[in-house]
Amino acid sequence: MIKKNSNIVFLGIGANIENRMVSIMKTINLLEEKCGFILKTSNIYESDAWGFESKNSFLNLCIKMETILNIPTLLSECNAIEKEIGRKKKSTDEQYSDRIIDIDILYFNNEIIEEKNLIIPHPKMHERRFVLQPLHDIAPDFIHPLLKKSTVELLHECHDVSKLNVYLKQ
Q: How many structural domains compose the chain?
């Protein structure tokens, strides 16, 4: 049962260097330890890098979490977890690179947030099959608060033709 003062957040998690599964499992454990209760976890998908060239394929998944944290605290915790796992820096100005772990806040309740270091809903999620497919696993009917479309609709309309393979079924 979801608590009265809690928030529902959807996170996208990805990794493409070092031991990807170890990084993902550590991240999930730390998110639950520091941020809240994980309600649902998608399948884990393997795909090629998106937006840059890499010989390393990504593992991606989405989680639905209940948290009492506010958005600045959640963002701070996610950044701290990335750093604890071994991430050196975040991508800037769409200069993507290989990463040991990446945590993106996709949705925070139904809120629309536009700040210097954070935009929610995630501004490119509707363009990325590697986000939409795992999100579809756990929230097919969730309505994007800006685009006013469900995950099912966004996935159907997505122009990204990247190939995804189920790496681990949940």
A: 1
